[in-house]
Amino acid sequence: MASTDTHGRHITYLRLSVTDRCNLRCQYCMPAEGVHKLQHDDILSFESLLRIARLAVSLGIEKIRVTGGEPLVRKGILPFLQNLAALHGLKELVLTTNGMLLRKYAAELRSAGVQRLNVSLDSMQKKTYATLTRGGNLSRALDGIDAAEETGFPPVKINAVVIRGLNDNELLDFAELTLRTAHQVRFIEYMPTNTASDWPSAFVSGEEILDRIGKVYPIRPLPNVGATGPAKLFQIPGALGTLGIITPISHHFCENCNRIRVTATGIVKGCLFDNGPLSLKPCFERSDEEMRAVLYGVLRNKPDRHHLLDKDTLITPFSMSEIGG
Ligand code: SAM
């Protein structure tokens, strides 16, 4: 049964990061020189990650999203996913990737039991993609998306962080992608992290995104049925796919937030912008019951909302790649 936090929210979703390493260096996510590489011992073993996942599921977590860094760069990821998929009580196993290794792994991910994929694709222009990801290859990402669909995955959700002056000239291209494919293209508001020195001038609100697309195409809101997560959904009449807007900044969705996060180093967070994170590492020597109690404490005391933009709040700067988004 789902556990409920002190604000009455049912907490059913765990974002589990398996590595801080990545094969891209997206400008909005990581410093150019990459993150300070963690030592092998700092990163939790798959055995420990699985133990955390099992205890989280016993507390009512029904959905796990595996993330990173780039989850597919970690050696041994496939058997780990298979073990996660086998957890009794877990209903949904999904993964977020940049797609670079999807051609190689799509079929095996599917047989391991991953049910859905989200792919980060912030530009459909070769040059912009390379600039934004600091060297990424657009064709490879697109080929990865094709591979996922050839393997029988449902149409991937495409996540694009919108940054003024970088990729906001592609809003219509992304919207038009939904006319001919069944993808859900989700525009994400740019969040300030330690790499976001250009924020807020580069910030584009969900409202502006909708407004700019709406000037060219009629878009109608869709009822948020099923597992749409924090995205508000829209569709251009007659389109095969849908548009999603994720607005952590302009209209936060904290009152409906059902997630907790565990990083690859074992930090458990009730909120992405939580300033008092707690390490699960000391619990590894203890019993399942003790570790479960610590996890429950974080889940139960999940903050009512993020305080990112409050005047007097000091949030420790971080790269998203250290947490998993
Ligand atoms: N490597 C995988 C990928 O590319 O999707 C997973 C890790 S990535 C950190 C997870 C998500 O965080 C991506 O969808 C990415 O767009 C998002 N993200 C990273 N930095 C962000 C920022 N400053 N604002 C908004 N979203 C961000």
Question: What do you see in this structure?
Answer:
The strands form two sheets. Strands 9-10-11-8-7-6-5-4-3-12-13-14 form a twelve-stranded mixed β-sheet, covered by helices on one side. The protein has helices spanning 46-58, 77-85, 102-112, 126-132, 138-150, 171-180, 206-214, 288-300, 320-323, and strands at residues 3-4, 10-11, 13-17, 63-67, 92-97, 116-120, 157-162, 184-189, 220-221, 232-235, 242-246, 259-262, 267-269, 278-279. 27% of the residues lie in helices and 18% in strands. Helix 1 (46-58) packs parallel to helix 2 and helix 3 runs parallel beside helix 5 (138-150). The chain is α/β, with parallel strands linked by helices and 325 residues long. The chain contains nine helices and 14 strands. A hairpin with a 5-residue loop joins strand 1 (3-4) and strand 2 (10-11). The model has no long low-confidence stretch (mean pLDDT 92). The protein is globular. It binds S-adenosylmethionine. S-adenosylmethionine binds at residues 22, 28-29, 67-68, 70, 96-98, 120, 159, 161, 188, 190-191, 193, 196, 320-321, 324-325.
